[in-house]
Amino acid sequence: MLDITFVHFTHFMEAVMGVAGGPIRVVVAKPGPDGHDRAAESLARALRDAGMEVIYTGVHQTPEQIVGTAIQEDADAIGLPAHGTLFAAVVDLLRERDAADIKVFGDGVVPEADIAVLKEQGGAEIFAPGASTASIVEWLRGDARESAGA
Fold it and tell me: Domain for residue 23, yes or no?
């Protein structure tokens, strides 16, 4: 008979999930009027397959809705298309609501020059076209729960 205590189970889950404290929680959102959500749905599925807990908000979300969901769901990170004003608005709202520890990452067709700007605005990571979902998973496992400013 297998004798597993809660402590042993917790250590096992930490090893499987790659982090302490249970699965990484990620809000995947599609802000603004653009209704194309194939990339967001693919990312959400890949993160779930990697053992993360994903809250997919769907399309046409406002920055306020996205930040509210992330705070309510105690998310570790928010994944968005890397588009200037809405991306920056989410980062700014997180700061205003004392939730800057929630990492914001973006992906999509982003000019190289814009990547530096998005990071200066507070984006934790920007994944350019061609980035694999595996690289996003790896980044989240390594950086999602590091404290802001660490």
Answer: no
